[in-house]
Structure formats: structure tokens, C-alpha cells
Automatic annotation (TrEMBL):
UniProt-recorded name of the protein: 4-hydroxy-tetrahydrodipicolinate reductase
GO CC annotation terms, alphabetical: cytosol
Origin species: Stakelama tenebrarum
Functional pathway: Amino-acid biosynthesis; L-lysine biosynthesis via DAP pathway; (S)-tetrahydrodipicolinate from L-aspartate: step 4/4
Protein family according to the UniProt entry: Belongs to the DapB family.
Location within or outside the cell: Cytoplasm
Alphabetical UniProt keywords: Amino-acid biosynthesis, Cytoplasm, Diaminopimelate biosynthesis, Lysine biosynthesis, NAD, NADP, Oxidoreductase
Domain (Dihydrodipicolinate reductase C-terminal) ranges: 104-240
Amino acid sequence: MTKLGIYGSLGRMGQAIANVAPEEGAMICGGADIGDDPLELAKQCDVLVDFSAAPAIEAHLAAARAAKTPIVIGTTGLTSAHQAAIDAAAGEIGVLQTGNTSLGIALLAKLVREAAQRLGTDWDIEIVEMHHRNKVDAPSGTALMLGEAAAGGIGSTFTEAGVIGRAGLTGARASGTVGLASLRGGSVVGDHSVVFAGNGERIELTHRADDRAIFARGAVRAAMWLAKQPAGRYDMGAVLGL
Ligand SMILES: NC(=O)C1=CN([C@@H]2O[C@H](COP(=O)(O)OP(=O)(O)OC[C@H]3O[C@@H](n4cnc5c(N)ncnc54)[C@H](OP(=O)(O)O)[C@@H]3O)[C@@H](O)[C@H]2O)C=CC1
Ligand SMILES: O=C(O)C1=N[C@H](C(=O)O)C[C@H](O)C1
């Protein structure tokens, strides 16, 4: 059985992963949270998953590198410095980073890219996400991934085309942009909609997560797959063959 270690083991996702791991063929070999030594955990496991908090990522990557243990990073709210640390670690160990481990979102990202490419910039693209009241980062990592997919479809990047939130005298909407709005409330597990708004018609592609178990199963499957890969940086598309 694959020995799986969890950074953020006491959190919502950490507990969901511990619940589904046995049915996916993995054994939880331990967990680390605030105040625990990340290296101790990394040395004991075949593969790690990280669902903790962005400020902890660099220490967790350093521990994974030191122990030569591959790591799945599901934590969101990452900066460009975090992305650079992931790229550096991927030179030595397997690292799979994704804002969403569900099958549905991996497929949605492909559909969004294709729709954006086929429709072109005559159709305006807007993304809306909603999550529970305890989520600490915005926009969601998933919404940013979908934004990147949409921007890629129109030959751009989300850094160039993204407009996060609007307020005040914004002026008319610029063509070729990708808007993104975040809602927070209640116990919503995770809803994402991508709206393609044309003249006189509208297409909406929506994914709704009803249960964190979908993310947890995807994370365990990703970890078991990653444990067999050489060093490098991977995403969910590689795991799911999309
Ligand atoms: N990729 C995906 O598919 C998904 C990603 N996520 C992301 O996963 C992350 C965790 O989400 P969720 O489980 O809901 O959050 P929680 O707040 O429920 O859990 C986070 C856990 O990490 C611990 N933690 C916080 N800071 C550190 C630190 N510096 N070092 C070690 N442990 C730390 C917390 O401890 P304490 O409680 O003591 O602060 C807590 O146990 C978020 O970034 C979220 O966006 C969530 C769902 C799916
Ligand atoms: O914090 C959450 O709960 C979630 N976070 C991820 C994100 O930021 O996209 C994935 C999922 O939507 C739930």
C-alpha cells in the first residue's frame, strides 16, 4: 500500500483525504500541522499531499526535497514566488500542483479553453465562483485555472487579460478580457461558472462540488500516480489522461 503523508491533516481537506484513502488503496502514514516538523513526516512517507495554507508551502517543499519524497500541492492562494519554488523543487522530485483535484474541473478547463478558442473575442468571458464563509483566499485557485484556460483559448494569458472584480466608474468592458468575481457564504463546497456572453445569446458552463470527497479522492489518486513518476512538474490532466 502507498504510504501517504498529509500536510494540513486536521483541516477540512486533510480529514476528507484520511476518510477516503483506504478505499483508494492508500495508507495514511501521518500528518503535520502548525508546530509539527514537516521533515519528520516527509521521511516516513512514499508521497505527500499538501492542503494547508499558502505561507507553509515553501517549508513543506523544502522538507519534501530534503527527504526526496514527491508531493501533491492542492493548497491555493499561491504567489509567483511559490510557483518559482515549485518549479525549483520539480527539478529534484515529482511535484503535482493544482487548484482543483476533481475530474469535473479538469474536464471543464479543457471545455472552457475550446469554447473560448471557437467563439473568439466577439464573446465576452466572465467567471463567477462561490465558496463557504471560511475560505481565506480569493479568487479561488480553480477560478484562476479556468481564467488561464479561457485566456489561453483567445491567445492570451490571464496575467494580460484577467480583470479581478469591478467597482466604480470602470468604463465599458474591454474586448479580449476575462472577468472574475468571487462570492463567499454559508457552507458552499465550491461552485464555478464560466459565462460566454455574445450578442443576443449566452453559454454558461458550470461545475458544482457537493462534497469535499470528490477533491479528496482526486488528491489520493494523484498522489498514487505521482509516487511512480520521475522528477518533474505535473498537473491533473496528466493523471486523468485528458
Ligand atoms: N486543490 C483542491 O482540489 C482543493 C484545494 N483546497 C485548498 O486546500 C487548502 C486547505 O483547505 P481546507 O482544508 O478547507 O482548510 P482548513 O483551514 O480546514 O485546513 C488547513 C489545515 O492546514 C493547517 N495549517 C495552516 N497553516 C499551516 C502551517 N503554516 N503549517 C502547517 N499546517 C498549517 C491548519 O491548521 P490550523 O487549523 O491550526 O490553522 C489546518 O489544519 C486551501 O488552500 C484550499 O483552498 C481545498 C479544497 C480542494
Ligand atoms: O477552499 C476551498 O474549499 C476550495 N478551494 C479550492 C480553490 O481555491 O479553488 C478548490 C475548491 O473549489 C474548494
